[in-house]
Design brief:
Blueprint lengths: L2 H4 L6 E2 L9 H26 L11 H6 L5 H26 L3 E2 L2 H16 L2 H7 L4 H8 L4 H7 L14 H40 L1 H7 L19 H19 L3 H18 L9 H5 L3 H7 L15 H6 L7 H20 L1
Antiparallel strand pairs: 1-2
Bound molecules: zinc ion.
The site of zinc ion has 5 residues, from helix 9.
Length: 346
C-alpha cells in the first residue's frame, strides 16, 4: 500500500469569506489600513487623556511642535497616499496568487503524521551508533509504553507507510499543522522583513542619490510620532514596504488570512517604533528595538546607526548598533535645551 492510497480523500474549495459582504482578499488589505489608524488612534487617545508624556523622555512638547520639517497635514496626506497605493499594488499581487483553498486539512494532518512516521525510521540507526539495539529496547517497553516502543523500533514496518497511524502521531501532526508550522511561518516571515528592511534601509542611507531624493523625506521628522510611521517617499513605500512584505509572504507560503495578521503585526511594529514612548511593557523591548532605539536613528547625530526594525541582530553584526547610553542621553538633552533657547528668543 503506498502513501497516496491511505490518505483521506478530499476536495479543495475556496474558503468562505470571514465577512459575508467582502472577499478575504479585499479584507486582507482593508484590515491593515484600518488597523494603522486604529493603533495610531489608541496612542493618540493615550496622549490626549492619560498623560503618556511621562513615558516620553526624549523630546519636549516644544520640540514636537517645532523641530519637524513636515506639517501634520502633509504627513497625513502622504501617509494616506502611500497606504492607498501600497494596498492597490498588494491587492493586484495577491489576486494573482488566487484565493485560499480549504477542505483538505485532515489529509494535510495525515501527511504530517506520515512525515513523523518516516522520521522514526532513522531512530534504530541512530541508536545503533551508541551501541543500542532499538528493536530489543522496543520489546522491553512494548506493553507499558507502546508509543515509545514504536519509535524505538523505527515506526513499525520500516520502509512502508502503515494505514494505521497511531493516535499520538496524529495528535502531534495536528499540533504541528495547526500551531507549530504557522508559528514558524510568522517567525521566519518577520526574520525576512528584518533582514530585507535592514539592508534596504542601510542602502537608502549609503547611496547619496537615494538618500537625497527618496529617504530624506522620512527624515524630515526629527521627532516622529505614531501615525508618521508610513510617511515616506513613494519609492521607499513600495520598494521597502511592499517589497519586503511580498517576499516574506511568498517565501513562507502564508495564506491570505495569515498574511492579514502578519501585516497587522508589521504595521504595529512600524507604528510602535515611531512613538518615541518608552513603555515598560512595549513589545519591541523584548527584542531590544524599543521606540528609543529607532528615535535615535531620526536624530542628525544618530542617523548612521540603528537601521533595523525588528531585532538588533543586523545592527550588532554590521557595527551600526547604538543603544541608549549616557552619550545619547546627553545629545538628547542638548537638543531639548537648544529648542527651549530658540523658543525663548522668539
Ligand atoms: Zn533612515
Amino acid at each position: 500500500m503506498n502513501a497516496s492510497e491511505i490518505l483521506p480523500s478530499c476536495t479543495l474549495r475556496p474558503a468562505e469569506p470571514l465577512l459575508p459582504f467582502v472577499s478575504d482578499l479585499t479584507l486582507s488589505f482593508i484590515v491593515p489600513t484600518v488597523g494603522y489608524w486604529l493603533i495610531s488612534g489608541v496612542y493618540l487617545m493615550f496622549e490626549l487623556f492619560y498623560g503618556v508624556e511621562d513615558y516620553s523622555p526624549l523630546h519636549t512638547p516644544a520640540e514636537k511642535l517645532t523641530r519637524n520639517r513636515a506639517t501634520k497635514s502633509h504627513v497625513f496626506y502622504i501617509t494616506m497616499r502611500n497606504l492607498v497605493i501600497q494596498n492597490a499594488l498588494g491587492w493586484v499581487l495577491a489576486r494573482r496568487a488566487g484565493p485560499d483553498l480549504y477542505g483538505c486539512e485532515d489529509r494535510d494532518v495525515a501527511v504530517w503524521a506520515m512525515r513523523l512516521r518516516s522520521l522514526q525510521q532513522w531512530i534504530p540507526s541512530l541508536l545503533a551508533l551508541a551501541g543500542i539495539d532499538g528493536k530489543s529496547a522496543a520489546s522491553r517497553v512494548s506493553h507499558s509504553m507502546p508509543a515509545l516502543a514504536q519509535v524505538l523500533a523505527g515506526g513499525g514496518q520500516a520502509g512502508e507507510f502503515s494505514p494505521f497511524l497511531a493516535r499520538w502521531e496524529l495528535s502531534l501532526a495536528h499540533l504541528l499543522y495547526y500551531y507549530l508550522v504557522p508559528t514558524m511561518q510568522f517567525v521566519s516571515g518577520y526574520m525576512i522583513l528584518d533582514t530585507y528592511q535592514y539592508f534596504a534601509h542601510r542602502m537608502l542611507h549609503q547611496n547619496r542619490w537615494l538618500y537625497r531624493v527618496v529617504h530624506s523625506v522620512h527624515h524630515h521628522l526629527v521627532v516622529p510620532y505614531p501615525w508618521s510611521a508610513f510617511y515616506a517617499h513613494i519609492i521607499e513605500a513600495l520598494a521597502v514596504g511592499v517589497g519586503s512584505a511580498t517576499l516574506a509572504f511568498t517565501l513562507t507560503g502564508m495564506t491570505l488570512r495569515q498574511g492579514m495578521w502578519f501585516g497587522m503585526g508589521a504595521i504595529f511594529n512600524e507604528i510602535n517604533s515611531h512613538t518615541g514612548y518608552d513603555f515598560p511593557l512595549s513589545p519591541g523591548r523584548l527584542l531590544g528595538t524599543s521606540p528609543i532605539f529607532h528615535d535615535l536613528h531620526h536624530q542628525s547625530w544618530g542617523v548612521k546607526y540603528n537601521f533595523g526594525f525588528y531585532t538588533l541582530f543586523w545592527d550588532w553584526l554590521c557595527g551600526t548598533l547604538w543603544m541608549e547610553d549616557e552619550h545619547s542621553m546627553r545629545k538628547y538633552a542638548e537638543g531639548r535645551a537648544m529648542t527651549e533657547k530658540k523658543m525663548a528668543n522668539k
